[in-house]
Amino acid sequence: MFEVIMIVALLVLSVSLMLCIARALMGPTLSDRIVALDSFGLNLIGFISIFMILQNTEAYAEVVLVLGILAFVGSVALAKFLERGVVIDRDSH
Amino acid sequence: MELLMSVVVGVFFMVGTYLLMTRSLIRVVIGINLLSHATHLLLLTMAGLKTGAPPLLNRGETEFSDPLPQALILTAIVISFGITAFTLVLAYRTYKVNKTDDLDQLRGSHDE
Amino acid sequence: MKWKTNNLLFIHVTRVVSFLILAFSIYLFFAGHNDPGGGFIGGLMTASSILLLYLTFDKRKIDEMLPIDYVSLISAGLLIAFGTGFIGLFIGDPYLTQYFDYFTLPWIGEFELATAVLFDVGIYLGVAASALVIILTIAGDQ
Amino acid sequence: MAFQILLNLTIAFFWMILQNSYTSFDFVIGYVIGIAIVYFLRGSLPQTFYMQRVWAIVKLLCLFLKELVVANLQMIRIVLQPKLKVTPGIIAMPTYLDTDWEVTILSMCITLTPGTMTMDYSEDGRTLYIHSIHVEEKQEVIDDIRNHFERAIVEVTK
Amino acid sequence: MSLMHWAILLPFIFAIFVPILYKYIRPVHTGWFVLIIPTVLFLYFLPYISSIANGETFYEAVPWVPSLGIDFAAFLDGWSLLFVLLITGIGALVVLYSIYYLDKKHEAIHNFYVYLLLFMGAMLGVVLSDNLIVLYVFWELTSLSSTLLISYWFQRDASIAGAQKSLNITVFGGFAMLAGFALLYVITGTFSIQEMIGQADVVINHELFLPTMILILLGAFTKSAQFPFHIWLPDAMEAPTPVSAYLHSATMVKAGIYLVARFTPVFGGAPEWFWVISGFGLFTLLWGSLSAIRQKDLKGLLAYSTISQLGMVMCLLGLGSAALYFDEANELYTVAILAAVFHLFNHATFKGSLFMCAGIVDHETGTRDIRSLGGLMLVMPATATISLIGAASMAGLPPFNGFLSKEHFFMAITDATQYGIFNMETAGMLFPVIGWVASVFTFVYCCIFFFKTFAGPFNADRFAKTVHEAPVGMLISPAILGLIVITVGLFPNLLSQSIIEPSMASILNGLPMDNEAFAVDIEHWHGFSAELFMTIGVIAFGSLIYVSMGKWKELSIYKKSEDVFSPLYDSSISGLIKGSQKITNVQMTGRLRDYFAYISVFFLIVVGWTMIRYDAFAIDLQYISEVNSFEVALVVLLLVSVLSLPFIQQRVAAIVMLGFIGFLIALFFVNLRSADLALTQLLIETVLVILFMLAFYHLPELRKETKRLTFNWTNALISFGVGLMVTLVAFSAFTFGQENDFSPISEYYIENSADLAGGYNMVNVVLVDFRGLDTVLEVLVLGIAALAVIAVIRLKLKEGDDV
Amino acid sequence: MTEILISILVLIGSFLSLIGSLGIIRLPDIYSRMHAATKSATLGVVFLISGSFVFFLSEGVFILQLLFTIAFVFLTAPVAAMIISRSAHRNGVELWGRTKHDELMESYPEHLEPERDNEKADQP
Amino acid sequence: MMNNLIILPIILPAMIGAILVFFSKSQQIQRFISVIAMTAILIASIWLAIDVYNNGMRVIALGDWPIPYGIPLVADMFATVMVLLSAVIGVCCLFFAFRTIHPDRERFYFYPFYFFLIAGVNGTFLTGDLFNLFVFFEVTLLASYILIVHGSTAFQLRESFKYLAINVFSSMFFLVGIAYIYAATGTLNIADIGRRVAELEQDGVLNVIAVVLLFVFATKGALFPLYFWLPKSYTGPPAAISALFVGLLTKVGIYAIIRVFTVIFHHDLSFTHHFILVLAGLTMLFGVLGAVAQYDFKGILAYHSVSQVGYMVMGLGIFSPLALAGAIYFMVHHSIVKAALFLFSGVAEKITGSTDIRNMGGLLKTHPAFSWLFFITAMSLAGIPPLAGFFGKFSLIVPGLEETHYVVVAVSLFVGLLTLFSMMKIFSHSFWGRQKHSSTQANIKTGGLLITIAPLVVLTIVMGLAAEPIFFYLLDVAHEILDPSIYIESVLGE
Ligand code: NA
Ligand code: NA
Description:
- Chain C is mainly alpha-helical.
- Chain C contains five helices and two strands; from the N terminus they run ααααββα.
- In chain C, strand 1 and strand 2 (109-114) form a beta hairpin.
- Helices cover 63% and strands 11% of the residues of chain D.
- A three-stranded antiparallel sheet of chain D has the order 1-3-2, covered by helices on one side.
- In chain D, a hairpin with a 5-residue loop joins strand 2 and strand 3 (127-132).
- The longest helix of chain D is centred in the middle third of the chain and has 31 residues, at 50-80.
- The two termini of chain D are 12 Å apart.
- Chain G is globular and about 70 Å long.
- Chain G has one domain (2-492).
- With 494 residues, chain G is mainly α.
- One sodium ion binds at residues 71, 110-117 of chain D.
- One sodium ion (NA) is lined by residues 737, 740, 742 of chain E.
- Chain F: This is Multicomponent Na+:H+ antiporter subunit G.
């Protein structure tokens, strides 16, 4: 039963992921796609958390944290690029 | 699962190859990236996907997944990263210098 | 066209977060031999944290703060990794032979010393520096 | 505050040494004892007792969590409604908070709580531009934030 | 190394010093130093005549590449000796002649002499080598040095064209010959000609006999300018005249004759050999003589005459090979060989002198066009005299040596009709007829050569410079040759026993040595035989034709002196280049997608074909691990993302999609129990997405593929095939691996990571311990990539900044 | 007992995640979608991580990384939301037609005021 | 421990490359270190070759891990020949580079890339592990990508992108092949794969895998119809680099083909090797037609490189001792000769400022030494005896006929003729004819450049005249290659 619930949760998350993909495909702006990517990353964290339960292993704890970090870094980098046309400013603004 | 993964790999190869045969620089680069994903998945699949624990020995498990392909893939991922990064830059500069990203316009003449 | 941007939230959060990530990356590096992690992952994570700093502040500020020549660091990493391989040669073992032993120290307890860690340091430096060089170079050409 | 925490930690470790037992349980015991000691000695210390501030933080957190849950419920409603009933807008909200840190926390709270999201600051960082999903009345939104978050944050930092 | 080896190598060694002598001893014409070499060599070989005449042969072998069966074996018998003496003797005369012909002040004579010595050594090597490969080595060197000599005035287009033509044709033959030699080696197991003679039966009866023979003959025919490969020789006349006299009449062009004679003991008994050699020889004889009369260039005329005469010798060698078929040295057959050897020698003498005379005429008048020449007899009496001797000999007039060999030629071709083999009774009747007709034309062009140049009125205005007789030094060499022509003509048996008999013995090697048959006795008068009447007929008809030349001149065939095969050659060369360009441009389109299409189709065909051929597809469900529902969901997500990629029109969307795919793959790695992989994948994917965005954000939007839809379908079909192949092979390889009982090596890692490497994360242990080299190399790859990124972005050179 | 708790946490978490994604799909403009992404997705993931954390806690394993992740997500989600929405705004991504105020636009200096055009916003 | 000698040709250039990065600003120091290092590599290679010849195959298990589990480096005679070759070419091209390349290149890591390439190439020759081979391939390729595009001219960028794309594509299939091999045999060590494959009875899948790997190596080695990347990418970079590439790069692919198809896939010769022969013939033909079509000095040379690859593979396809010896001989010969020719193209460009032979003429008059060195080399390429090229061709033709492969022999001879034709095209256009360059250009001194190429020219003469010791040695090598059990047992220590 417990496992079934976990799998149901995974399937729900899969649908959620699919929606993110849909938004990324639909756009219409780059910002929309970044949002989709950001959300996608967050949903993946949930996915992996459930995997940890299912596989009964804590081996992916670091993965979860890293994913959290990267979703942030990635979104910020893309958004900043979008805003300023550069990722890294040469000089103070 | 191996069957399913093999099919996935095949689809990756299909799309990757298709993208390589398009005119746009970026599509080619994307195609290359897809192919590298595909090979990583294939390496993993070919070692057999029978479920064991992650290959960490200090967790009290006895059955493990094959660690070797994982190490190979890790190596392959890093290599693909290096190559892809370089490809990107190359495509970027090619575009900037040749003023086009259309590979048909990057044919060059026969008389060079 | 230049925006006068107030990045208050961004700067304050990343100030904290990037150092957390840096610490975490070092943890990942050391965890490597027994848990997920290692030189590669640690190196890439370190690169991410430094990238985050670059994202938040400007290049000049970070260059002042971390006066590191990443290009040289790549070489240094490579030389360390290739160099540790020579350790074995002095006692007649093949290239790249790694050694380890367990030691017990008061207070700290039993711990492992391995040449593989030195090797991994080389990997770590090489990966981190390479990743940063790639990103910074491309980003710098905009 | 840092000094007080350091003091407290020292006490906790001292406790563990005395007990000659180094488990996390011992540490917690030692820390609690430390809190008590620091509380009693607060008069001799230059600042207010740091646990007061901790308490304020806890209150802020609770407020925040409550608002977060509310926010999500609201989102569920919006999303699952067959017809979208939203009137979004971007409004400027001047804040009376002094330090950058305070403003930072405020803007984070704004974002994670119902209907609002910080989008930008004015150049001096004392006016927040907020996107709200319901702007029936602009002042209402501003007051809501004022009454809840600004006050709670001032509690923590004062 | 014997002295004979050093004799072969001497010209090569001396060639090294020629540029030095040229540079540092300018006052002395370098030719004087060079002259020493052929003279010394001639004097060295001359004494061999007596021992060779006594039936001795000399064989000295030095191992060169014994692993490949190649020995530097020098073999000297009568046939080689004849050539050696021609090469060195005429060589000496030619060098002497060249000293006066080439101006040391204005010409790069060091080049000339280097080439000439190179040729001399090579030619000696050809005729003295027993090992076919060594022979071949020298053979190609003669082609090469000939090319260089033709191109001596390399600033002239005609020289370049002539040089390239000769090289192309002779090397074509050379390569074919090499293949023939290799086949002979396959048949006999040796490269030694002498050893092959012992296996002549094996060779003739071998299934590869015919191709072997044809290939070797291609070499001989191209070298000896046999029809239809003769076209290079007239163009070779761009070479300085000493070269024409030496290589293109006296020696090199006879290398093919040498080779055919050499191989007669091996191939001689076969009808194919008989017919091919004699047939091509006969036709070349006719073609050459017919073409010669159309020439307006004095040297061109001589070139065609050479072709014709070489054809005659070749024809005789073919006829004479019948002796080997009968295995009997009956005079009926051997007279052909006798005639061949004798004429070969005679031709060298009279043609050499004629070339030199033509050179003198050219040198002194500045032209070789017979339409401008005439009346030189009085101005250049010595030259005219020598020319007359040579021309008369060539025309077959008594008492010159040419008459004698021509008589023997007539005798041989009339005898051939009585062979009673190879259908000679019927088809053989053509031989005397064609031979005679060709001789008539020979007579005619000899008349043209002499009379158009020397007879008639002299008009000094027609020449750019003041015409006078050549310096004495220049006349010495042709005079000596003329003297030989007369001497041999008068005392033909001077050569009979010393040169001709031993040569015949070499060519008919292996026949029962019947002294009668080889007892050569050449006489001027042997009754009112058929030969005599044929000669009289030649003179009569020849004179008639020459006298009526005025009428023939109007024929268009006369006006156009170019050989019909020359345009054929030219168009085939330009066709080759155009064709190559076409073929190359069709596949090397420069379009990356074409390349990928070709490559993919190749992959598809090859792998698919192999799978079908070996019925290699295998699948067995029992080895397959189970699939969870969420795994299916994940697969669907992945496939949706991947399949959407080709349809995405915005690059940013494509990049974001790529990010999704990367993240999903990390998820797969987690599902397949690999934390390290997932971590790496996530990190790298994030960085990559950022990089992609940086690099591609400013690129133009992805355009829709504008081509027709069907074209896309082709690509789609190809890519589908590639994907399918990858999948099918994956099934099969996996099933195959599960069915055999090899345990994967990874079990070792599971057992030993902790104990031997001190780590619990096996992946990491594999990376830093078991496969440390991989790991440090991948960092190297990353490092190179980083440096490369810097270089590509920051280093900006322009075309031509450096080389 | 803990299994039930975990199940609830996980189900709520996945449901909230779904809501977040639905919001991203359904809401009319990038700014409203940002709300869904930050609020629902964030809380959803926090629930899921908590579920996992509780699961291992019940097995006697305390996974600090998971707690860190929760903190991290809370810390960074607003930052991401802000910078994404701000960049969108500055690039001229259109607000929904029924949006009432845009005081941010009013604050921009005139020469920096972006043109509102989604097509162009995707492509500088 | 003498076995560690094997690592020197790999680790030395790799570390030197890394060290040179530190000195990227200083031309002098970089050149100084490069010379010392390249000489050291040459000495190490010679030493290794002698050692292996005297003492037999050297195997080192890196990290001291038992053999199929760790990565071994294996130095057999074949490998040491190739390593020595790469060192020789490396030295010559390096000195040539000193005199020709733009100083900006030196600032942007030209020398590091150079040494990394050599490290990669030597690694591919010496490794005994299939996956490690892949990694070394990538090191080599990446270094080659950057060296090809170094300078970033429009032409370079355009063509190197194609080069890169095609090679990356084939690298993917290398990984695919490795995955298949691992699935089918459960091991990665080349010798171990060879042993396991030899024990298996069913060979259908193995043939398919063999073909996949052949496809990969054939792309790297530029076989028909996979050579599209080669011609233009070799004409873009400076002569020193083109020369280095042609000397080393395609050889890596051919080496891999020979290694894999002798140690692992030799159980169905009639299929695989016949197929290889067909490819060999077509490669020769299409390559040389490309050369005939060209008027670009480097272009002609580049297309010849394709064509000559066919000869090398032909030796493998014939699969007799002499043929294999011939193939190796041809590889060595071709590397030397073609490197020299590419360097000559650089000299010609330096004098005339062009690489189009139609813009050249009369070089023989103004630069006789250059002309004759070129001529000798060109004749060697065309297989004119007694230069090395002849023996390369000869040792393929004879066994080809012995094994009754008449067609491919005929093609090879025909191609030889066209090779001569196109080399003469260069010679007659550029060296003969009227002088087309100015008198200032005519006075350009080339002695300094020629002295760096001369060793290669001398080598091609010596290899011809002293063919015996070389063939004596190569026949040993061929016998060693033809008996896979020698390799397998030496590596696995059975
Ligand atoms: Na809010
Ligand atoms: Na198995």
